[in-house]
Amino acid sequence: MPVDAIVNPANSLGIMGGGAAGAIKRRGGDKIQHEAMSCAPIAVGAAVVTTAGRLHARAVIHAPTMEEPGLKIGVENVRRATRAALIAAAHHGFDVIAFPGLGGGGGVDPDEAARAMVDEIRALRTPKPGTIYLVDTDEDMLISFEEALRNAQQGV
User: Fold this and answer.
1) How far apart are CA 129 and CA 61, in angstroms?
2) pLDDT digit string (tens) for 79-119?
3) Are 45 and 19 within 8 A, CB to CB?
4) pTM for this entry
5) What three-state secondary structure class fits 92?
6) Hey, CA dihedral for 17, 45, 35, 49, is it positive or negative?
7) For residue range 21-32, what is the model confidence (pLDDT) as tens digits?
8) Can you list the positions of beta strands (E) in the chain?
9) Domains along the chain?
10) Quick one: what percent of the chain has pLDDT higher than 70?
11) 142/105 Cα distance (integer angstroms)
12) pLDDT at position 73 over 80
């Protein structure tokens, strides 16, 4: 997608192995991971911005949900990572960002993750980012995003 930035559901070490992180690295190039790792450790609740390599984006926002790859996490880590990514996007003036589902690699239920992400996006009080695409390759996550957005719209 041609966006200003894509969010990477990262780990604190900056290692981009599987899931969305692995896909970002494969498409964008190793330089993205090298830059992220040079910023490590990145705390859960913080985010760093790197170049986007060959992606159709200006930057990648690395927002850790876990300290090390493969750890089980709670939904609060998804909230903290979402908030950190949004703050980083606003700080860098990114208007359009793509946000994959966070927390799946850490065992967070897609419905819980989607609700947490939508809650944090709705709480955003900055003019940028102005457009946020919720994206994923996992059908369950997409369905969860749709349901969370529908519920938010209805005030449920």
Assistant:
1) 13
2) 999 999 999 999 999 999 999 999 999 999 999 999 999 99
3) no
4) 0.96
5) coil
6) positive
7) 999 999 999 999
8) 3-11, 48-51, 57-66, 96-100, 131-135
9) 3-151 (3.40.220.10)
10) 100
11) 15
12) yes
How far are the Cα atoms of 22, 36, 51, 138 from residue 124, in angstroms, in the given order?
Answer: 28, 25, 24, 25
For CA atoms 74, 105, 134, 126, the dihedral sign is positive
d(CA 128, CA 131): 8
In whole angstroms, give the CA distance from residue 116 to residue 22: 23
> Pick from 51, 48, 114: which is nearest to 84 by CA?
48
**Backbone dihedral region of 14: left (phi > 0), alpha (psi from -120 to 50 degrees) or beta?**
left
62 contacts 14 by C-beta, under 8 angstroms:
yes
